[in-house]
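Dear all,

This email documents one entry for the complex benchmark we are building for the journal club exercise. For each entry we list the sequence lines for every component of the assembly. Then comes the predicted three-dimensional structure of the complex as a token string, followed by one or two observations. Please use this as the template for your own entries, and keep the labels exactly as they appear.
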Amino acid sequence: MLLTTPTHAATYYLTVAGLGGEPDYEQRFGLWAGEIEAILKSSGGDAKVETLKSAEATRANVRAALEKIAQEAKSQDALVVMLIGHGSYDGVDYKLNLPGPDLSAADLAALLNRVPATRQLVVNMTSASGGAMSSLRKENRVVITATKTGAERNATVFPRFWVEALRDPAADTDKSETISALEAFHYAQHKITEYYESQKRLATEHALLEDTGKGEGVRAPSAENTEGLRAAAFPLVRLGAATSIANNPEKMKLFEKKEQLEQQIDELKYNKAAMQPDQYKKQLTALLVELAKTQEELEK
Amino acid sequence: MKQRVQRRGAETPRRPGGRLSRYLCITALISLTSVQAQTLERAESLWKLDNYDAANNAFRDLVKAHPKNPDYRVRWGRLFLERFNTAEAAKLFGEALAIRKDHPGALMGLALVAADGFEAKAVEYAQQALMADPKLTEAHVLLARLTLEDNDAKKAAEEADKALVISPQTLDAMAIHASIDWLDDKDDNSDTPWIRRILALDPHYGEAYAMGARFFILNRRYQEGIRFYRKAIEIQPDLWSAHSQLGINLMRLGFEDEAKAQLEDCYQHHYRDAATVNTLTLLDSYRNFVTYRDGNTILKLHRKEAALLRPYFESEMKHALATYEKKYGLKLDKPVQVEVYPDHEDFAVRTMGLPGLGALGVTFGYVVAMDSPSGRKAGTFHWATTMWHELSHVYVLTATQHRVPRWFTEGMAVYEETAASPEWGDRLDPQVIHAIKSKKLLPVAELDRGFVHPTYPSQVVVSYFQAGRICGFIEHEWGYAKLLAMMHDFATSATTVEVIEKELGMKPEEFDKKFLAAVDAETKTVVAGFEDWRKGLKEVAALAKAGDSPQVIEKSEAIRDIYPDYVEAGSLYEFRSDAYLALNNKAAAIQELEHYAKIGGRSPETLKKLATLLVEAGRPADAAAALDRLNYINPVDEDLHRRLGDLWFAQNNNDGAIREYQAVLAGKPIDPATAHFNLAKAYRRASRLENARDELVLALEAAPGYRPAQKMLLELSQSEQGK
């Protein structure tokens, strides 16, 4: 999947680690937020990273940070908000536990709506985060929650595996040297399932993704349920020097050929079920060899 | 069922030991008052007509109308007991005893409930019932049955005789005698004087054969058990309990079609106890399993993990079978089947109605059923140990034609676990230490009792330990050949007493003394110092939490050698390793974890940590060995296979790398492109270029722009063109 990042666009990242309640959680939340910050800062690109944790993670500071982004960001920019901590849901409203007054989903949605960046991603990794879905979803916004409803109230392991997704090259399943929001979601989901299975514990969290602006969120985004398209095209972390080769006019011809080959491969894969396996393999191999040669030429 | 109940009424006078006593009891009750009599009579009649719901309602009304009458509660409890609801039955018997504390019927009911769950309390209740009513033949029969379950035929016969003295026509007491003869092979195609007596009184008394069948099954003589259930059904076609047991045991031996037919027949005839229904459900679930046949092995694995587990299980199975064939000097005449259940509940269905732990694996002749590593919390289950344990049973049971006391076959199996690898098997655990300290180990001649009717919660575990150590002790003192000689003696139906006397040249009591002396010598440090160790461990844990690493090392040093076998969660090795790491002494940290692994520590996290440290210390071969241990503990781990594959690839162990990378793929990894590419690299190194090319295509199918895979594909294509 070709990730569509407009040229010269910036990405604003805001990570908030809320109240732990206990020293163990406090330390864990802060650690995860710190790791996210370190990964984002080292990934290069035009990343503007801000992290609020411990005593700094107040509602006022979250508001101030988002208001500042709202002033700076342009429409072609992207915004990523990641929430770690304990959440609560009273059947009506979701709240993130912060030092001082809590932050409700409605408050957060209002702040996000003021940010002109049209591409937005909110990753709510807290307990009960499913309760925030209906407030946060919006057109052009990808929303990921660690739980499927506000009733899943146990502390989540989602952040642990989300952090892992950001730093593990294995999360980059299409080898584009960029981890998309969808890839990170799949990675975390896979690891969470493994975690609960290996511990022989009943899973108390079921992550959801919503990026149509009108859905309830799904556990398995796919073409069938029309979820995941925007998340797949949302670059979260760049692993290498992934630059758009398409911007080089000298290589435009080769680049077009590459795109055509990729398209042919996609079409072939689409028709796989209807083809004889030998025929499919032969055609696929030929296209892949051609694509490899083209890529080699492009890199010369 | 219907016919049986009708006959039950007609035949009652001929069964004074069992049903007649109940009949007399009912008759006495009926004479109390006409209103009560009519109601009780109605409840009993409905029961006899198999109208269980109506009978249940009638009993409920009766108990409501006469809350102080314990007899009604007892009869109601017996209805529940017959209809598979032991919990409700026990409750009613308990209520009856609250009204009259020495009610013989209630005590008898509780004895039957306890016997159903192989609880040692059954004996106590039956004896109390006899004190309350010395003529209660049913209690004598139950005591005889329980004694025979412990393989004490002499006492069982004496107990059965007591029932026959009270009532000479007690069919179940005669069936105990017949069972003793059958178990002792004193029959001519199942014909014995006792069964002739029984059939002369009641030619349709299939329950006598069913009782014999049950004892065969308890003694793991499944083929004979099945034959006897068939005989039971032959003369009493509506004996659904026998149909059910026939079906269950056919399933256990792998005869699934006939098993299903028998169980469905039961279900159709409203015989729906938990074992019948759960076994039917299990048989239905078999469509989710795949069966692999390869020479002397048949492996049945769940579809979802078959590709991942097969290489590990199949090779280990073949290794174990080849080893045992040599050790036991026995070539099996057909393949052995191992069934692996990812859902522990499915596995549990296979062991329903059997005594003992049965928690990890169970052997039925040539069929072994066991938990899958995915069915247990990672690190709590060493599947290879369980497989070797169960496969040992296959050989010992075959060599003895299933005529072997439980302690010996379990002892051999436990002994073989650590013989396969010193790191395998179970360690001396706190329950066993407590049992040794409290002098709770049983005499060898009575050790079967510890497996079948435990008198304290951990006795089954303790009995496994003891049986294993007895075999180890015999091997140490007399050599392995002596164990084989004993095994062959048991094949002739010799008893434990006879075999010990013959092979070890001493009375069992003398053997017990020598064995206990050896156990005491081996365990005296831990037994004497256990409390100090426990207190010390607590202190070390607190120091570790406080981050006082020097103190953790110093304090743990003082207690480490008291109980070096402890490698469960929160072991001293882990505390010490963490402390050394905090002090930046990696070499010492590695040493601690190597001890942990060598003793048999199984935490995947800890063993992976050891592997990481070994890699950092420039010892990749040892790191690979540390990770390979985990293949026998928790192979359902993508990270493990990827790391081990990488290590083996770097060490030019191509076959090892291929196996591990294949395992990564079998686990449906998050990143299939890299997994296929890694496998392609290993194939290429092993000169399996066609396979390498296939894997590259699969890698690029998942990620067409994957540069390393593209490069290798071009290299392979160019080298092919150059040929």
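Observations: Residues 393 and 409 of chain B are 6 Å apart (CA to CA). DSSP finds 37 helices and five strands in chain B.
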